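Hi everyone, sorry if this is the wrong subforum. Our group has a chain we'd like a structural model of before ordering constructs, and none of us has done structure prediction before. Sequence below.
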Amino acid sequence: MLSRRWSAFLILVAAWSWLIWPRFALAIWRDDRAWDGDTPTSFLWVHALLIGASLAIGTAVGVLGVLGWRRARAR
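Answer:
Right subforum, don't worry. Here is the predicted structure as tokens:
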């Protein structure tokens, strides 16, 4: 079982991921290297994959943190 302190840490990590990665995605979208005319480049696709994976991991960590928080409170 997770302590409330570890659960809070996981929730903060998830919040950090959801604050930072969308802003990074916007920066990548606006980067000249992301587009060749109207066609997305591999630069954009690779970063989109990394951003998507990071948000998925952040979400999973957040869910674990919330579940740990609730279970620690129930004890």
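For your construct planning: The chain is about 80% helix and 5% strand. Residues 32 and 39 are 11 Å apart (CA to CA).
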